[in-house]
Every structure is written in structure tokens, then in C-alpha cells.
Amino acid sequence: MLRELNVRHVIYAAASVLLFWPVLWWGYWPTHGWTDVPGYQVGRDFINLWAGPQFAFSGRLSALFDLAGYPDAVGDLIGHPVPFTTWSYPLYTLPLFWPLAQLPYLWALAVWTFGLFAVFATLILSEIKPAQRVLALIMLVLAPACLINTVGGQCGVLTAILMIGGILLIDTRPMIAGVMLGLLAFKPQMAVVIPFALVALGAWRVMLIAAVTVLTMVTLSVALFGLDAWQHYLAINAGYTVAAVRAFNDSFRFMLASVFAAARTFGLGDSVAFGIQLAVAIATIALACWAVRRTRDPCERAFVLVTASPLITPYVYNYDLVGVGAMLVWIMFGRLPLRSESSGVCFLAWVAPTAMMYLNQLGLGVMPLALLALFVIGVRAIGQTPLLPLAVAPDRPLTLPLAS
Predict the structure, then answer these.
(1) Fewer CB under 10 Å: which end of the chain, C or N?
(2) How many angstroms from the chain centroid is the CA of residue 370?
């Protein structure tokens, strides 16, 4: 492992730890019992995935739509008061997360955190040479977005598994790919680019299976909870989320990683910021579709679509950048080699999930520019590579530009 260690690994690891430590200390450090500094249960956001299904399947579904009363209901369930929190996931996720809700909270959190990361690491490391996998695993653990997910109980790792795994399997296992990309609808804002990419690729079987997967989840949720529940969810929960994003207060100010958020930190109004976001989203989708058609390498496709995803939606948190961290680990260990002239962009994209928590509060929402630059570098590299015949399934890595 030491023979594989180089200066880049040390710099990336040190930056991860140094930027994350204050975040951990100020926001997530356990104080007494199993609560953190602000008073949330350890595991923070996971409390919703654990509590929501319990309410839904015990006759208390209405608790999900009571913005004022929901924190009290969660507090009663966990055994102590919790700060303000809301249910924000589509109702078809309730059956998906129901099995975890049957476990005691800490056991469920352990399965969620370590079980999902094990699957995620297996997926990413499978594309890296065996001799490099131990060091690559360390870097994956230290990826800033992964660190935030670990302490915050968020779903960024699950999103990355479904998106990257589904993309890698489009050509070889279209049915499994379709199911995985369909399940990605649990976080719909992160899946916007996927249907466009599938159309561009002509992956009709994958698209059909994905659509059937989503339709099945929606139908099951309607059968279980009724249409009224969906009306309440869209009017109350989704409405609250839209209003909170537009207000751009609290965690939205320092954890949103979108182009919209960057524009807001510079003092632009929400209408102007949304306009900039829409323009970037349209251009990103067009470039992503063009790029995925030019390559047969599934890792190149994953790179383009994973880096495109956070540029398209205004509602993307720093912990949703786990997939971007995985792409950078692939670059770091040669699966997607990068030339030295572009290494600065990669470093900025690497630290973006934690660096933005400091910079956004200073009115300097520049980190999405690093994500945009990383995406453009990947698209440009594919554009500079000769288009291979469709019959060829290359085992070549993406060479990002400016290399000799």
C-alpha cells in the first residue's frame, strides 16, 4: 500500500480531515446520551427514514403532513425531544424503508451507515486494480461527502449506489439497470438527467424497466395510503421544501451545492437564481446526452452523468456529492486518469462538500464552479477521443484533457 501512496493522496486526505473536523465538532459531535450538539439524535437525517414508515404503517400517516407536530411525534418515538425536522421523501419510499424501521434505532442506523457503505465501496473498488484497493478504500472513506453522510445519516451513499450501479449495467444487465435507475426516483431531483441519457443511448429496455419500477412504487403507495395522502404530501411537504429553498435560510444557505445556491450567496434574488440554474441545467443535459452517445465505456458514462446530476437541480445538498467523490477516487487511482494541468479542478471538487459550508456563509458560493469545470473536462475529453464502432466494448480509461 505504501508503494501506491503519493503526494496527492496525502494532500487530499489531509484536506478532508482538516475541513471536516470543525464541522464534526460544531454540528455533529455527541454530547449526552445519543444526541449531537444541536440536539438531534445521532444519525441526524436517518431519524426520518426510521420514523416515517413506523407512522405510516401504524395508522399515524397524518403525522408526516403535520409540519408543526411532526418533530413532537418523532421525539415521542425516540424518547426525547428533537429539533425541527420534516418528512421530505415521496410516499412510495415508505415501503422501501419499512424493513429498517423494524429494527431498534441504533441497529437500523448501523445497517444503514455501514451496510450501504460496504456495498458502495465494493461497487467503486471493483473498477480499481486489486493492488490499489486498500488505499482507494481509505480515500473513499475520507471523501468529504462520505464523511458528512456517515455522521449525518443522509442518503447520498444510496443515491450513488443506484446511479453508478445502474449506469454501469446499462449494456450488460439492462433489467437490473432499469430497476436500479427506477429506484433512484426515491431522490427524484438527483435523477433528472437519467431519462434524457437513456433516450440518447437508445436504451429503451432499460427505460421501460425503470418506468415500470417507478409506476409500481407509485401504484403501491396509492393502494396503501390513498390519493388523499399524495395530495397532502404535494401541498404540504413538497410545498414546504420549495418555499424553504426559495427562502434560502438555515442549512440551505451553507449546505446547498447547486448553481441556484451559488447565485443566491452573491445576493441575487430567487427568480434570477432560478433562471441561471435553468440555463445551466439545459446546457448540462444537452452536453451529457451528447457525451454518453460518444463513448462505450460505462465508467466514462458514469463520470459524465454523475457530475452532471448536481448541476441540474437547485435542490442538491453537499452530502449528495458522494458519487462525485467516487469519480474522483477513480481518477486518483487511474481508472479515469487525469492530466496534471486539470488536477486543481479535481482538488476543488474533492473539498467542495465541506469547503462550501464555510464559503457560502461568507457570500462566496464558488464551489459549484468546480463541479461545473469537472463536468466540462469530462465532456471535452470524450469529445477529443475518436468515436469507436458500436461493436467495440473498450476497456480504455477516460483521459481528461491537457495531457501529453
Answers:
(1) C
(2) 16
How is residue 319 written as a grid cell? 452530502
Grid cell locating 237? 411537504
Measured distance CA(223)–CA(220) in Å, rounded: 5
Give Cβ neighbours of residue 361 (< 8 Å, ≥ 6 apart).
Answer: 253, 254
Q: pLDDT band for position 398 (50/70/90)?
A: very low
pLDDT tens for each residue of 79-96: 888 888 999 999 999 999
pLDDT surpassing 80 at residue 391: no
| Rounded CA separation 335/323 (Å) | 15
User: Does the pLDDT at position 339 exceed 80?
Assistant: no
Are the C-beta atoms of 87 and 52 separated by less than 8 Å? yes
Q: Give the other-Cβ count within 10 Å of 280's Cβ.
A: 20
pTM reported for the whole predicted model: 0.92
The number of beta carbons lying within 10 Å of the beta carbon of residue 166 is 27
Q: Quick one: angle between helices 144-152 and 343-359, nearest 10?
A: 40
